[in-house]
Amino acid sequence: MEADDQQIARFMEATHTSFEQAQFFLEAAGGNYDRGVSMFYEQSGGGHPADLPPRPPAPTGALVADQFPGINAVNAYPAAARGPLPPPLQLLGVVLGAPFAVLGGGIRLLRRTLGFGAAVAGAVASRVLPARLSALLGRAGRAVFAAGRDLPPAAAAAEFAQQFTERFGGEGPQWQECGWGEAASRAHGLGKFLFAYLHSPGHQDTDAYCRDTLTSPALVPFLNEHFLCWGGDLRRSDAFRLAATLRAARYPYVALLAFSGTRTRLITAVEGKLPPARLQEVLQAALNDHGSLLWQEHAERQQRETDRLLRQEQDSEYERSLAADQQREAARAAAQAEAEAAAQAAEEAAERARAEAEAAEQQRAAAEEALRRRKSEKRAVLGEEPPAGTPETTLIRVRMPDGATHQRRFWMADSLQVVYDFVDSRDGVTALRYSLATTFPRRVYRQESLGVSLRELDLAPQAVLLLQPEDN
């Protein structure tokens, strides 16, 4: 696939290559910009082809473009640019790079096919091409094949930390095993800058830099104390994207990053191999110049935390006050309800008492009226008392519950009803229902005996009866 002019210009700006070099790598990568840049760094060891004549280096201390807001310029050590390939090799490289363009489009689905094709192409190239171009194409093919097995940021960071420890020992920085964005956020939480190292495995200075500088007993404590450290292999997309964003031009490459709000700032970058003491001087100078950012962020974070705690305490106090008010209101409502219930119960009891009193009074009045009416009626029907000494008479005495006694003579032929009529007519009788009984022998005369004569009831020639009230 032929690369367009816009992609070529973008590639040249990011890698400082010539037009012919940019066109070659983009076409070899099938028009995929990221894969082409990855191929370029893989075959060039982090810079440009080592076997091509170099262009004059840029002045030391030049400014690297900063794509992060808030920083105007970054001190860095820029890359030494290289010259273009000779025209015959350019043409031959384009022709032989065509198989990679064809295979690159389906790299994730056809890894085995790519591996086989790369092996065949390498075998042919080693026999028919010059050694330089054969090695160049071999490295480019391996880069294309490796692009199909990328890892997530956290896994890539863990892989880098493990490989760094295995290769250079465990005395290096304490690498964060997460993506660089997450690492920047962690550093922000700790009030530190992020020390980001971009690892280019094929660069000629990489091993010596890791062995002599990044594991230096003098530098490592300084790094771990003042920064949060993150490292990334350029063969992995997370590190490669960071390198492209920072426009890293020379390796080894380290940068200090600061996370502010929702964006990340580039504080300073160091490109190229530096001894430990010099690197520490550069990093210390960055701390001195830009440490106010950390102080400002720390102060703002502390203020936010103070405000949060104050709001939390105010909310808690409000909740406590509200709960106390609710408890008091509930207690007041409960007391009021209890008082209202007691008043209601008292009112109901008084109402019942009044109703009972009224009922009792009505009942008493009704009883008195019934007694008065009965007394009047009985007196009207009661005949004359037989004179004393009259034969066939009997004297009946009726003893009241209060001890009073009423007596009268009756005809022996009178029925017991006449005796009851006599009792009903007396003033001292207050019972509506009662019975008459003898004491000895004990005998009670009730309704069933009212029609029986006094002679038949053995109440002649005389008898004493007790009135027994039966009202409830």
Automatic annotation (TrEMBL):
InterPro entries with a match to the protein in the record: Thioredoxin-like_sf, UAS, UBA-like_sf, Ubiquitin-like_domsf, UBX_dom, UBX_domain-protein
Composition-biased stretches (Basic and acidic residues): 305-331
Pfam families linked: UBA_4, UBX
Organism superkingdom: Eukaryota
Entry keywords, A to Z: Coiled coil
UniProt feature coiled coil, ranges: none
Name of the molecule in the record: UBX domain-containing protein
Source organism: Chlorella vulgaris
